[in-house]
Write a structure and sequence with these properties.
Number of strands: 4
Distance between the termini: 22 Å
Mean pLDDT: 88
Helix content: 40-55%
Shape: elongated
Low-confidence stretches: none
Radius of gyration: 26 Å
Strand content: 15-25%
Strand order of the largest sheet: 2-1-4-3
């Protein structure tokens, strides 16, 4: 029974892919459509990248003790190497460059609120534990060149075209009951 269902699913996938290819065969994305999609995608990108370090510990109390040590002049990197539970500890808590969307929300929100050189004086709680975060620097995010992402843009534009076509089909589809349902016993 499961095998029959899987075969039917494969058949439907093949049919959908064939329908998609047939529909899109004469609807190649124009350069203008690609440029438009590129602008849309670039506009959605974060404007800045962040370079931060963190110290990750298990409890809020311990995190607060470390903040006190930082306030008394302890070096962030040294504390991270000694106390952090995170894999970045060997690099002094260095997380390299990242965009906020790559981090869990409480962490990202804390990083974005800092100025370069500042650290969180209140530990930040995430599902991983308690973080003390230090922002090293920010920089403008460089969007990838159009030519670098042209193939991916073509896929995106084609997928949107087919989705619009499918939506249109669904709007105009007529569904009829065929009476093939099993009678209730």
């Amino acid at each position: 029974h499961d095998t029959a269902a899987l075969i039917e699913l494969q058949r439907l996938n093949v049919l959908q892919n064939a329908a998609s290819e047939k529909y899109l065969s004469d609807k190649k994305a124009t350069d203008q459509e690609l440029r438009s999609e590129y602008e849309t995608q670039v506009a959605a990108l974060p404007r800045l990248e962040y370079h931060a370090r963190h110290i990750l510990v298990a409890t809020e109390d311990f995190a607060k003790k470390l903040v006190t040590q930082l306030e008394k002049g302890a070096k962030f990197e040294d504390l991270a190497k000694r106390e952090s539970m995170d894999g970045s500890k060997d690099q002094g808590g260095d997380l390299q460059w990242f965009t906020p969307d790559r981090m869990v929300k409480p962490f990202a929100d804390a990083v974005v609120a800092l100025k370069p050189g500042e650290y969180t004086h209140t530990p930040v709680n995430t599902q991983f534990g308690w973080h003390i975060i230090k922002l090293e620097d920010t920089r403008e995010l460089q969007a990838p060149a159009f030519d670098q992402v042209k193939q991916r843009l073509e896929q995106m534009v084609q997928a949107k075209k087919f989705k619009a076509y499918q939506d249109e089909l669904m709007k105009t589809a007529k569904v009829e009951k065929t009476g093939a349902e099993k009678p209730k016993s």
